[in-house]
Amino acid sequence: MEYLIGGMGLFFLAHFLPSQATWRTRIIGQYGEGPYKALFSIVSLAGLILIVIGYARAPDIEIWHPPYWMRHVTMMFMLPVFPLMIEAYLPGQLKTKFPHPMLLGVKIWAFAHLISNGDLASSILFGGFLIWAIYVRVSLKQRDAALGRPVISGPQRNDWIALTAGLAIYAYIVIGGGHGLLIGVPLAAVPV
Questions:
Q1: Which of 31, 60, 114, 174 gives a 20 to 30 Å CA spacing to 108?
Q2: What are 113-170's pLDDT values in tens digits?
Q3: How many CB atoms lie within 10 A of CB 104?
Q4: Range(s) of the domain holding residue 189
Q5: Highest-confidence segment of 39-43, 95-99, 124-128
Q6: Dihedral-angle region of residue 149 (phi above 0 means left; psi in -120 to 50 means alpha; beta otherwise)
C-alpha cells in the first residue's frame, strides 16, 4: 500500500505545481521551460509506475461489497471517457461546452470505478484521482477566469473523430479483452 500512496503523492505533487502559477513561473524562470517539462514528465511517470506497482501489490481489504449490477453502471459511465480524452488533444466544438475534457474524463473514470470496486486500494486510487480532478478543474476555472483566457476549440469534424476513435477504444477495452491485457484484470474476472 505504501507504493500506491507514495506514487499518488508524487503524481499529484507534480500536477499540483502547475496549478500554482507563482511556483511554476519561478521554476521556469530559474531553470527554463524545457528542464521544467522534463522534470514534470519524469516525476509524473515515476508516480504512475509506483501507482501501478502499489495497486498490483495492495492487499485485498474489502470495505464494502458493490452489487453485481453496478458493473453495468460503470460500463455505461465509461462510454464518454475515451472520446473526452481524445477531445483534449484534438479539440472540436465540444470543447466550448467542456473546456477541460481530460479532467472531465478522469472524473467520470474515477467515479465509475469507485462505485464498482469496494476494496481499500481502489478507494484510495479512484477516490484520490476523483478529488484531484475536482481540485484541478476548480483551480483551472479560477485561473482561466482571472487571466481572461478564451476557450480554444476546433472544427466539428474533430468531435466526430474523437467520438469514433473513443468508442473504438471503449469497444476494445470492454469487448475485445483490452481491459485484461492493459490493466491486468479481465472484466469477466472482476469479483461479483
A1: 60
A2: 999 999 999 999 999 999 999 998 988 888 777 777 777 889 999 999 999 999 999 9
A3: 20
A4: 62-192
A5: 124-128
A6: beta
DSSP assignment of 98-153 equals: -S-HHHHHHHHHHHHHHHH--BHHHHHHHHHHHHHHHHHHHHHHHHHHHHTPPP--
**Total of domains in the chain:** 2
Please identify, among 40, 58, 76, the residue that sits at the C-terminal boundary of a domain.
58
Spatial contact of 48 and 14, defined as CB atoms under 8 Å apart: no
Residues 31, 72 share a domain = no
**Considering the entire predicted model, what is its pTM?**
0.88
Q: Quick one: 91 and 171 in the same domain?
A: yes
- Asked whether the beta carbons of 110 and 127 are under 8 A apart, the reply is yes
The residues with which 119 forms a beta bridge, in sequence order, are 62
pLDDT above 80 for 18: no
Which residues make beta-bridge pairs with 56?
A: none
Q: How far apart, in whole angstroms, are the C-alpha atoms of residue 187 and residue 124?
A: 20
Looking up cell 453485481 gives: 68
* Domain identity same for 100 and 168: yes
| Domain identity same for 4 and 78 | no
Q: How far apart are CA 40 and CA 93, in angstroms?
A: 30
Query: Which stretch of 86-95, 99-108, 111-120, 135-144 has the lowest confidence by average pLDDT?
Result: 135-144
Residue 105 contacts residue 81 (beta carbons within 8 Å) = yes
